[in-house]
Amino acid sequence: MRRTELDLCRIFGCLAVLMIHAGADIYHEVPVQSFSFVLLNFISTAVRGGVPLFFMLSGALFLSRAKLDTRRLLIHHALRMTGLFYLWSLFYALLRVFSGALPFGQDFWLAVVSGHYHMWFLPAMVMCYLFFPPVHAALHGQKLDGRYLLGLFFGLGLLMANLNLTPDPAPVLFRFTQNFSLDYLPYLGYAVWGWWLASKKLPEKTLWLAPLVYLAVTLIAARCNRWYSDYKGAADGWLFSYFSIPSFLQASAAFCFFLALRDREFRHGAWIAKLADATLGVYLIHPLMINVLERFGLAVTPEAPVLSLLGFFTILSIVCFAIALAARRIPGLRKIM
Questions:
Q1: How many CA atoms does the CB half-sphere of 172 hold within 13 Å?
Q2: What DSSP element (H or E) covers 57?
Q3: Is residue 59 part of a domain?
Q4: Backbone angles phi, psi at 335, to 5 degrees
Q5: How far apart are the first and last CA of the chain?
Q6: Nearest CA among 79, 90, 32 for reference residue 227
Q7: Which domain holds residue 43?
Q8: How far apart are CA 323 and CA 279, in angstroms?
Q9: From the CB of residue 189, how many other CB atoms can be counted at a distance below 10 Å?
Q10: pLDDT tens, residue by residue, 176-189
Q11: Which of 198, 224, 251 is the last residue of a domain?
């Protein structure tokens, strides 16, 4: 059954990611002593909990099931995510070649294997998917075929470790192994945390308590970021890490808020579901659309950083969702977005 409250959470997380990337450059261009930096710092800090939400959502959706279909998980989710990573990495690398920013050769293939700057999320999610079966078995007291664990050992342990022992002339192969690094596994903790929260019956007061917690944590974290930026004499996102305590608390508060909306009736549930389904496409295309909008003269400016950021973010969100929704109506594009 479709859970509209989780769809809303997914949309919120997607918008947070758009704001992170829309305001990434201007954050470091505005003087730290200005009032504009205070506002930008608050906005930039407020959206850091968005990325962990996607791992929490996956945990709530997959780990909460009484029985996990491992075959479907691997083929329709892990393998598909891997394919999307390399397909869209190829697309962004070709754009750089056509624009003259990247020569066609080894550097091109290295760019394809490395992926665009925002594409790290896909292999990180793939790594979590690969470990969902043993985690699910542990959480539900079920038996897992030992061959699956051996597959993880041989595939991620021995194989990747030995591919990583490539000589210096093989940077493409070396970078390939880095995409599926065990370093991404801490995000698995967010998935388990999402499962645990989703298993609780949250009281009605969560609807006002969670936003208060989110606001309080953001204010404190923003103040700490401002202090550290003053100390360094330049803008610094000290607590921007997705594993910082503030980001964890923000993600938890937001997730609890949306969970507390469960069993409520939503007048536009069908449209909310469509927007939620479009978030992957929005994620994949938004760096391209940022560049396109900037070429049309729409950009975040130092002269009016806060207002221009909010305006740019609004236009970017509308354009990306519109394109993603339209693309999902086309069978061929639907599969890659």
A1: 9
A2: helix 50-58
A3: no
A4: -70, -25
A5: 22
A6: 32
A7: 1-50+205-337
A8: 11
A9: 16
A10: 888 888 899 999 99
A11: 198
Report the pLDDT value the prediction gives residue 169, as an integer from 0 to 100. Answer: 61
Asked whether the predicted pLDDT for residue 168 surpasses 70, the reply is no
Q: Is residue 97 part of a domain?
A: yes
Question: Residue 10: which of 215, 261, 335, 182 has the closest Cα?
Answer: 261
Q: Tokens 């997380």 identify what position?
A: 13
Q: Which amino acid is at 195?
A: W
**Can you tell me the distance from the alpha carbon of 117 to that of 12, in angstroms, rounded to the nearest whole number?**
21
Task: Tell me how many domains the chain contains.
Answer: 2
Torsion from C-alpha of 179, 45, 61, 287, nearest 10 degrees: -50
Between CA 78 and CA 76 the distance in angstroms is 6
Structure tokens at 253: 């508060």
- The predicted model scores a pTM of 0.94
pLDDT in tens, 232-250: 999 999 999 999 999 999 9
One domain for residues 22 and 133: no
Amino acid sitting at position 276: A
Question: Residues 298-320: pLDDT tens digits?
Answer: 999 999 999 999 999 999 999 99
